[in-house]
Automatic annotation (TrEMBL), chain A:
Domain of life of the organism encoding this protein: Eukaryota
Residues annotated as domain DOG1: 294-507
Protein name (database record): DOG1 domain-containing protein
Keywords on record: Coiled coil, DNA-binding, Nucleus, Transcription, Transcription regulation
Listed Polar residues bias regions: 117-127, 204-226
Family per similarity comment: Belongs to the bZIP family.
From TrEMBL, chain B:
PROSITE patterns according to UniProt: GLUTAREDOXIN_2
Occurrences of domain Glutaredoxin (ranges): 13-77
Family indicated by similarity: Belongs to the glutaredoxin family. CC-type subfamily.
Any one of the GO CC terms: cytoplasm
Protein name from the UniProt record: Glutaredoxin domain-containing protein
Organism the protein comes from: Eragrostis curvula
Pfam families on file: Glutaredoxin (PF00462)
């Protein structure tokens, strides 16, 4: 990397700045190696680099007696009183420089593998390196202290981690053995770091390990720029990559979640608006009493209505487009299926909040007026529809009339059953049960009442069943075109009821406020004259 | 186990109910509205009601509640759902007629 830098600088006919050179030199010093050691690795290139460095330093340095010292003085990165004349590079770690280099080492890892390897080699070979491992300790610790976000090669300020100063001091405290430094590293590094863990667990084998690594160097994996990395570094790099990848994936997932939530929110807002337009939320919907099942159903119903409107339009087009019967049959069949879907939704809602369904809060006021057991009354609907379906064959007329009659009987039966339930429930609430005259406590009453209420769900479901069967039977009795007209008529009928609800809610009224001082508010609603609605 | 079948064969139309069951009341109302004279057996008043209920549940395919359960001509027709669907389809009356429970 240094070579590249120097080459680029030289080619641009621009001297590297004093700071740059000093920095590089200091790095070289701080890597705890004799510059000559590095040369052993890349003899040819190293010589070039070194001589170039020396030359350039020579140009810029004021005193050139001790090559090692000068750049450090020149470097001026706040290494106060950094190098005594005889301080070996090892003691660089006493200073802040160690921290700095620790960080930078990490940053350079990808680009300067050579330093790592040669540092290890130097560690085993050179005598005056009492601490063979502090540097890797520091760097590996920093690796775990913080994942590598970007390659900030030339930071304007040394990057510090909370761990390294401690480590550094520990390193110097336990200056003799690599054991202590290993221990410290394991204290500070996370469990992820296999290298540190290895070191911690093989304290007496560190030297062996290093020799092993030295041996392995030639055969280690992960060739980078044609140079080899030692296994520990390889592992660390892989872990960093993995961590970065995982964090990217997490970020992606989070963003996707946000996006889908945004869509859901937009959909819900649209649904609410639609509900208002439909006049469903007028007249004070019981917001406080709305259970989650009810709210869910309300939203689903609104969506169903939207869908229904589209299908009705499609059916209308299909009917007047003079399609082949087969095509129309498919569309009509889809319409029936769509109605089935609503009954399914209602059955679900009945399980969680039967009161919501049976009181018809989910439907428009006008529809609610005609409500029977949580929906439309099938026999009534048939009575309304019959005139719309002309011309019918006699066979069809009989069929529909029979259907109407059967439905009427079934409805009456269900109504009677519900009536009995009401009676039984009210008896329980009143305190005297029909069956059991023993003294029932309040909780006993409640328990009994609850068990009775649970059958309410069954009635709503049976009523929906009647509605569904009615629609299916109509589909069976009628021809395709007749069935198409039938379902359009049903849709339109309920549409009009909903429209009526909206109009009624927004009708013009006059309210007179009486004198407040006398007896509170008094509002007088004027009788609407027939002329008022002529505009409609 | 046979008690259910025995009772079901006694009359043309047999319904098994429970006295506190409102849905059972609905089904019996329907039959009487149609002019059917059905035999009604309340399981909670029968000493062997428990096992009969289990048997009915089994016959209905594990569906709860086991009541009301309608038998026509000794054969199981089904629960409320089935009875209502058959009636709207116009098939219940022919079944009753063929069992002799209804006349024109």
């Amino acid at each position: 990397y240094i070579k590249k830098l120097l080459v680029s600088k030289s080619s641009s006919k621009e001297k590297p700045s004093k700071e740059t050179l000093g920095f590089l030199w200091a790095l070289a010093c701080g890597s705890n190696l004799n510059p000559e050691d590095k040369l052993q690795v890349n003899r040819q290139e190293g010589t070039v680099i070194w001589s170039e460095l020396r030359n350039r330093m020579g140009e810029t340095s004021s005193s050139s007696s001790h090559q090692r010292q000068d750049p450090c003085v020149l470097a001026g990165y706040g290494f106060h009183g950094a190098m005594g004349n005889s301080t070996p590079p090892a003691n660089f770690f006493d200073q802040e420089g160690a921290t700095y280099f620790g960080e930078l080492e990490e940053a350079f890892m990808h680009q300067v593998p050579t330093f790592r390897r040669t540092q290890q080699a130097a560690g085993t070979s050179t005598a005056h390196h009492g601490e063979t491992t502090p540097f890797p300790v520091a760097t590996t610790a920093t690796a775990t202290a913080r994942p590598l976000p970007t390659l900030d090669i030339f930071p304007s300020w040394p990057m510090r981690s909370p761990h390294t100063p401690k480590e550094v001091s520990n390193v110097t405290a336990g200056s003799t053995g690599s054991e202590s430094s290993s221990k410290n590293s394991s204290d500070h590094s996370s469990d992820q770091l296999g290298a540190a863990a290895n070191m911690a667990s093989h304290l007496d084998q560190v030297s062996q390990q290093q020799e092993q690594q030295h041996k392995n160097m030639a055969t280690s994996s992960t060739q980078r720029n044609g140079k080899t990395l030692d296994p520990k570094t390889v592992r660390r790099l892989a872990q960093n990559r993995e961590a970065a990848r995982k964090s990217r994936l997490r970020k992606k997932a989070y963003i996707q979640q946000l996006e889908s939530s945004k869509l859901k929110l937009a959909q819900m807002e649209h649904d609410i608006q639609r509900a208002r337009a439909q006049g469903l939320l007028l007249g004070g919907a019981p917001g406080a009493n709305t259970s989650s099942g009810a709210a869910m159903f309300d939203m689903e119903y609104i969506r169903w209505l939207d869908d229904h409107g589209r299908r009705m339009a499609e059916l209308h087009r299909a009917l007047h487009a003079h399609l082949q019967d087969d095509e129309l049959r498919a569309i009509v069949h889809d319409t029936v299926t769509h109605h089935d879907e609503l009954f399914r939704l209602k059955a679900e809602a009945a399980k969680s909040d039967v009161f919501h369904l049976i009181t018809g809060v989910w439907t428009s006021p006008a529809e609610r007026c005609f409500l029977w057991m949580g929906g439309f009354r099938p026999s009534d609907l048939l009575k309304t529809l019959l005139p719309q379906l002309d011309p019918l064959t006699e066979h069809q007329v009989i069929g529909i009339c029979n259907l109407q009659q059967s439905s009427q009987q079934a409805e009456d039966a269900l109504s009677q059953g519900l009536e009995q339930l009401h009676q039984s429930l009210s008896d329980t609430m009143a305190g005297g049960s029909v069956i059991d005259d023993a003294n029932t406590s309040f909780m006993g009453q409640m328990a009994l009442a609850l068990s009775k209420l649970s059958s309410l769900e069954g009635f709503v479901i049976q009523a929906d069943n009647l509605r569904q069967q009615t629609l299916h039977q109509m589909h069976r009795i009628l021809t395709v075109r007749q069935a198409a007209r039938c379902f359009l008529a049903i849709g339109e009928y309920h549409n009009r009821l909903r429209a009526l609800s909206s109009l009624w809610a927004s009708r013009p009224r006059e309210i007179l406020m009486a004198d407040e001082g006398k007896c509170g508010d008094q509002s007088i609603v004027t009788e609407p004259s027939p002329n008022q609605y002529s505009a409609f | 186990m046979d008690r259910v079948s025995n009772l079901a064969s006694e009359r043309a139309v047999v319904v098994f109910t429970k006295s506190n069951c409102s849905m059972c009341h609905a089904v019996t109302s329907l039959l009487s509205d149609m002019g059917v004279n059905a035999a009604v057996h309340e399981l909670d008043r029968d000493p062997r009601g428990r096992e009969m209920e289990k048997e009915l549940a089994r016959m209905l395919g594990g569906r709860v509640p086991a009541v009301p359960a309608l038998f026509i001509g000794g054969d199981l027709v089904g629960g409320t759902n089935r009875v209502m669907a058959l009636h709207l389809a116009g098939e219940l009356v022919p079944m009753l007629k063929s069992a002799g429970a209804l006349w024109l």
